[in-house]
Amino acid sequence: MSHPHTSHPQTSPPYDHELQVLDPATEEVVATVPAASAQDVADAVGRAAKAQVRWAALAPADRARLLRRFAAVVDGHIEELARLEVREAGHTLGNARWEAGNVRDLLDYAAGGVERLTGRQIPVAGGLDITLLEPLGVVGVIAPWNFPLPIAAWGTAPALAAGNAVILKPAETTPLTALRVAELALEAGLPEHLFQVLPGAGPVAGAALVEHPGVAKIVFTGSTAVGKQVLAKGSALLKRVTLELGGKSPNIVFADADIEAAAAAAPMSFLDNSGQDCCARTRILVQRSVHDRFLELLAPAVESVVVGDPSDERTQMGPLISRSQLERVRSYVDADAPGIRGKAPEGPGFWFPPTVLTGVDPDARVAVEEVFGPVAVVLPFDDEADAIRLANATDYGLSGSIWTRDIGRALRVSQAVRAGNLSVNSHSSVRYWTPFGGFKQSGIGRELGPDALTAFTETKNVFISTEGPAQ
Ligand code: NAD
């Protein structure tokens, strides 16, 4: 895989031929990795297509057994994968361990689906009608850098379980864990070329996957701007495309909520992973009558978040992924803007302090655009209708939270907010066994959950006549 060495750090990696992986906490070079060309992608598609035919012909129990073994091998390497994720992505060790464990769980869950991927029998006259769920063929998974391990596995595990081959293109800045997982797949006995990882530049290797006619489906997770290009190019080939895109999710706090609990939970709902989370609750909407009290409670909670070395077990928030991401986040926050500020280390590394802005115009850039950093705004609202209006005043529709003790209100607001993943009196939104995906500009299609495997199949309808041959 990669060859760790210690050359001088570079902030604009030469993506055409190789990718340089930096430790975001120190700016040291962790590794350099060759970048795939369009030809490399085409070669990989050819190999994958052959491997897929053999894979789909295996008995379901054998495919399931191999995927369970893959999960077991990943389980034996959780700590190694987690440490690698800390190094290349700056994730806190606790988060990285959870993420590596999530890969194992996704594989286990998908393995359980292989023998349950059943079609239907539909009543018809004169015969029998059945549906067959057939694999698509070769699936391309294009992953972002913010959750390199889990998001790669969201697409890969169910696609393999449904009988497909997978080519995964990780993000430029975070190829190392994906490469290691591909090695573990071979160690577990998965056939060669069934699951290939091709690190490379998005506009080169990513675009080549999208444009290759031998790739039946693209599972894309990333920015809305690139997702739209992927959809446009993929649709020219009538390719199946799933898009998991950006978010600007509301955290709605009603006056009847447990305000202490809401204020205690709010910081990590937008600071987890340094805010580089598509589900980050970055618009904190607070009913006006409890606005000041909420801020009084929120300030110490934000200020006490431990920001620093991500490999330290006590750290709650690490650095941003790159210098360009740091500059992007800085561009949203004026140094003298009113609000709450936490602490962040000085010196090397891509650090930005936890930040909550108050008194913000709801139409301001920071209140409308996805910052993808540890920055939230607090906006007051008057009543339930006003809260729903503000929550929906965004082009995105990925996640959201509703804090209230009134069950009727919780249900009304859950139905009224146009987003794919909501939680009440909680900020949890992603479980591998429940569906996940966005409304509006946050995406198309759903991943995870009970239907995850079906999304990697074509439905074929077969009618079998029971009439005897014409006399
Ligand atoms: P990005 O769109 O820049 O890159 C995502 C992936 O697409 C990378 O692998 C990149 O190399 C590739 N890519 C870039 N240009 C391409 C092209 N022309 N053709 C094909 N592939 C190309 O996004 P990012 O900055 O890596 O990730 C952050 C974004 O991802 C945020 O907007 C975030 O909200 C979103 N995200 C969404 C979800 C979700 O499930 N909805 C989850 C995580 C992240």
Give the CATH H-level superfamily of the largest domain: Aldehyde Dehydrogenase, Chain A, domain 1
Strand arrangement across the biggest beta sheet: 12-13-14-11-10-16-17
Structural class: alpha/beta
- Domain count, please report it: 2
The number of strands is: 20
Q: Identify the CATH class of the largest domain.
A: Alpha Beta
Helix content: 25-40%
Bound molecules: nicotinamide-adenine-dinucleotide
- Overall form: globular
Q: Give the overall pLDDT as a whole number.
A: 95
Textual characterization of the structure:
This protein has 471 residues and is an alpha/beta fold. The protein folds into 2 domains: 17-245 and 442-461, Aldehyde Dehydrogenase, Chain A, domain 1, CATH 3.40.605.10; 250-424, 3-Layer(aba) Sandwich (Aldehyde Dehydrogenase, Chain A, domain 2). It is built from 14 helices and 20 strands. The chain has helices at residues 38-57, 60-75, 78-89, 93-114, 148-161, 176-187, 202-211, 224-236, 259-271, 291-303, 323-330, 365-368, 384-392, 407-416, and strands at residues 18-22, 29-34, 121-122, 127-135, 138-142, 165-169, 195-197, 217-221, 240-244, 250-253, 283-287, 339-341, 355-357, 375-381, 396-397, 399-403, 421-424, 439-440, 443-444, 457-465. The strands form 5 sheets. A 7-stranded mixed sheet has the order 12-13-14-11-10-16-17, sandwiched between helices. The radius of gyration is 23 Å and the shape is globular. The termini are far apart. The model is unreliable at 1-14 (pLDDT under 50). The protein binds nicotinamide-adenine-dinucleotide.
Salient structural properties:
471 residues, alpha/beta, Aldehyde Dehydrogenase, Chain A, domain 1, Aldehyde Dehydrogenase, Chain A, domain 2, 2 domains, 7-stranded mixed sheet, 6-stranded mixed sheet, 20 strands, 19% strand, globular, disordered N terminus, binds nicotinamide-adenine-dinucleotide
